[in-house]
């Protein structure tokens, strides 16, 4: 078996048997194309020729290559993909050992999620006010993102049937895992207005589709277009700095925890497989409390 054939077998496995999303499989493919290219320069054409030393050398190469060296986070992600490949090859008896098992990724600095304040969220959402069909759609999308903490891919993948009685939305996350998330009154009103006065107009411009959020031509709204409309809303709101779809997800979690929500509940709402990921948001809340204490307490400074 060649390296290229091994990669194709792995990608089929993660797509079909593990049910990973098309976006995740595409990301795995990009990582493994880089890995296969490097192995080729080393004269390695079969998975059985790869050793732990080769995998370690690949990691060093990613950090030190002359053209676009990767950050520690990007290297860790790519190594995770490579480890998944070699684990699969061992499990399927294509090789005799998992040579990537003990290769460690570079140490990552703790990077805190970037949220915006409640006042800034209000400004952002107000920037989509209006009765135009595009404004109704944008309002519904942004309100839903902030109300549910959904990833942008989860939001644009929603179908009309995933909005259950307007009170609950069914989100399909990583690995096709579904979760039910309640929808607050503001998002509920925005989605209802869009369904009644906005979506029918957009739907008439294209062929029938179950998609909840539609583009101006009546097709399912894409991730890139959703990102652009959020950026445009942030500019209209006068918000400085980088505001992305994930900013609303971070803000959702941070504001819930600051309001006293249990971290395990937030974990379920976000669809995190590990509570450790969710606990990063508690560090943000703790930093805010520390700043407030330092400012307000007479003996804090």
UniProtKB/TrEMBL annotation:
CDD domains: INT_XerDC_C. The active site is at residues 151, 174, 246, 249, 272, 281. PANTHER family: PHAGE INTEGRASE-RELATED, TYROSINE RECOMBINASE XERC. Site-specific tyrosine recombinase, which acts by catalyzing the cutting and rejoining of the recombining DNA molecules. The XerC-XerD complex is essential to convert dimers of the bacterial chromosome into monomers to permit their segregation at cell division. It also contributes to the segregational stability of plasmids. The keyword Cell division applies. Belongs to the 'phage' integrase family. XerD subfamily. Coiled coil: none annotated. The gene is xerD. Keywords: Cell cycle, Cell division, Chromosome partition, Cytoplasm, DNA integration, DNA recombination, DNA-binding. Forms a cyclic heterotetrameric complex composed of two molecules of XerC and two molecules of XerD. This is Tyrosine recombinase XerD. Residues 111-294 form the Tyr recombinase domain. It is found in: Cytoplasm. Residues 1-90 form the Core-binding (CB) domain.
């Amino acid at each position: 078996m060649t390296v290229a054939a091994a990669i194709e077998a792995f990608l089929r496995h993660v797509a079909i048997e593990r049910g990973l999303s098309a976006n995740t499989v595409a990301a795995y493919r990009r990582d493994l194309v880089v890995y296969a290219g490097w192995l080729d320069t080393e004269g390695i054409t079969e998975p059985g020729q790869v050793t732990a030393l080769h995998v370690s050398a690949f990691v060093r190469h990613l950090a030190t290559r002359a053209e676009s060296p990767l950050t520690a986070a990007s290297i860790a992600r790519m190594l995770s993909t490579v480890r998944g490949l070699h684990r699969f090859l061992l499990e399927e008896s294509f090789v005799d050992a998992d040579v990537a098992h003990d290769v460690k990724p570079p140490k990552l600095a703790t990077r805190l999620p970037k949220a915006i304040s409640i006042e800034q969220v209000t400004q952002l959402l107000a920037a989509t006010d209006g009765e135009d069909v595009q404004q109704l759609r944008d309002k519904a999308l942004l309100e839903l993102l902030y109300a549910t903490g959904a990833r942008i891919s989860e939001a644009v993948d929603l179908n009309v049937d995933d909005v259950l009685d307007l009170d609950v939305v069914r989100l399909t996350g990583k690995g096709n895992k579904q979760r039910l998330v309640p929808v607050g009154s503001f998002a509920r009103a925005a989605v209802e207005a869009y369904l009644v006065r906005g979506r029918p107009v957009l739907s008439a411009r294209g062929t029938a589709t179950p998609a909840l959020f539609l583009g101006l031509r009546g097709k399912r709204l894409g991730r890139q277009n959703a990102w652009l409309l959020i950026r445009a809303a942030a500019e209209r709101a006068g918000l400085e700095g980088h505001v992305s779809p994930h900013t609303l997800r971070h803000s959702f979690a941070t504001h819930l925890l600051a309001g006293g929500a249990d971290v395990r509940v937030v974990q379920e709402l976000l669809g995190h497989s590990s509570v450790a990921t969710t606990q990063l948001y508690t560090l943000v809340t703790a930093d805010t409390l520390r700043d407030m204490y330092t400012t307000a307490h007479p003996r804090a400074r």
